[in-house]
Amino acid sequence: MxxxxxxxxxxxxxEVKALARLVQYSRDRRKEGVMVLxxxxxxxACLLAGGALPRVYLNEAAAGKEEVGDLLxxxxxxxxxxxxxxxxxxxxxxxxxxxxxxxxxxxxQPDTPPxxxxxxxxxxxxxxxxxxxxxxxxxxxGVYDVFLxxxxxxxxxxxxLRAGMGAHFALRIHEHADLTAELGRFSGRKLVTHLxxxxxxxxxxxxxxxxxxxxxxxxxVSARLLAQADARIRIPMPGHAESLNVAxxxxxxxxxxVRQLETIxxxxxx
Amino acid sequence: MxxxxxxxxxxxxxEVKALARLVQYSRDRRKEGVMVLxxxxxxxACLLAGGALPRVYLNEAAAGKEEVGDLLxxxxxxxxxxxxxxxxxxxxxxxxxxxxxxxxxxxxQPDTPPxxxxxxxxxxxxxxxxxxxxxxxxxxxGVYDVFLxxxxxxxxxxxxLRAGMGAHFALRIHEHADLTAELGRFSGRKLVTHLxxxxxxxxxxxxxxxxxxxxxxxxxVSARLLAQADARIRIPMPGHAESLNVAxxxxxxxxxxVRQLETIxxxxxx
Lengths: 270, 270
Known about the structure:
2 copies of one chain form a homodimer. By secondary structure, chain A is of the alpha/beta class. The first copy, chain A, has 2 domains: about 5-105, CATH 3.30.1330.30; about 120-265, Alpha/beta knot (3-Layer(aba) Sandwich). In chain A, about 35% of the residues lie in helices and about 20% in strands. The first copy, chain A, has 10 helices and 12 strands. In chain A, strands 8-7-6-11-9-12-10 form a 7-stranded parallel β-sheet, sandwiched between helices. A 5-stranded mixed β-sheet of chain A has the order 1-4-3-5-2. Chain A is elongated, with a radius of gyration of 21 Å. The termini of chain A are far apart. In chain A, about 45% of the residues are buried. The interface between A and B is large, with 41 and 42 residues. Chains A, B: One of its GO terms (molecular function) is methyltransferase activity.
């Protein structure tokens, strides 16, 4: 057993209290430089991507499960695995039914992407589900660099990690980015989606170096970033709905890029 | 004041108890043939689409709001508007903070769509957020007929209505549909998304009469419906993610149809 096993029984244990704060408060997570992974799937995705899991917390009931055993067997030496009673785990997660597993992992510090790499810039995205979905779409579409303004919800919060379904570990996530400076540095096409955009998404070449900018759920993209855009693009909506939410809009844009790349490849020009 | 105003103060009032059951249980909603709309936005969307709101329940605090007054002024004669204390409203909604407004509306009974109308068939979709998002995408993309298998979560549940953001009122929603029979009757192209589909979404003509079939979040589309499909299509994913969820997949498919229609229109062939 390469990891260090321990048992915690008291809900008043200092480590338990600190863990509960990390689950709840982005400030604590940022201060400690960690993210909290909930569930075997996320912990596994983190390990597979080469991430570290220095601390793992297990619900007693989960400790005997085969898939948990498989995960623990792959932990590097020196990891600490603490087993907690269900009641304590429930208190930590703030949910009536305790999760099986929590794990702490260092927040990644990604390198600057290659100058021509396609990218997504997110300004003040507030909804964890939306943010996780955008990450998932970006990872699926092969756009690996995501820049987030300081006003975004914590991208490494448990909710965003859950919605991202492991996408976090496929991406280079650049937190607290100065989006104005990032756009200024970027030499590719800068596209902002806008309900009153002047040109259709489908009229743009998205196959090369492109930065997609998506804005806050209510306010949209700020005037400052809009002014830096090469184009304000609109997703045509022939139907009656008011609009797509930002996650759906991002998915449509990112997969229109996939389509263009596929079309180029299949026509032999790629 | 064309509507009938009343005040309810007791949480033990029979009407309050019945309302709480309608909020919570799909069985009760189906038995009564109603849906429960939460919030002014949904109630407004329902009215604008020609729907009826025979019963409206207002949180006391909301009764004085201008936008609520505007809504009430447009209610047809004979509607009953009951004002409830915040504590009673909170009990009804099952949430710590009471919503402003609940309204009951009859579940629509849509006509059979035109034979060539594009459509979405949903098999056993379980997540209310996914279902609402699919409806929103369909409405935005101008695909107005949605057929749901008996195994889908209640499409008129408060959660699905919330996620649909008013899309329900732009669509013809066919509940408890026999999807096998519907596909059998349909003479257009029948497309099923499948992770191991043999052809790319982007190689298909989606501009005409087309039925998109999307399956359960875990199990996918059943073998029976797969056997009826003209093609099993795959959304190409050049990236690392395992898959898109069903709502994102539906959004990508529906907007690929929008793109094709736009391209035809702009090239003068449409």
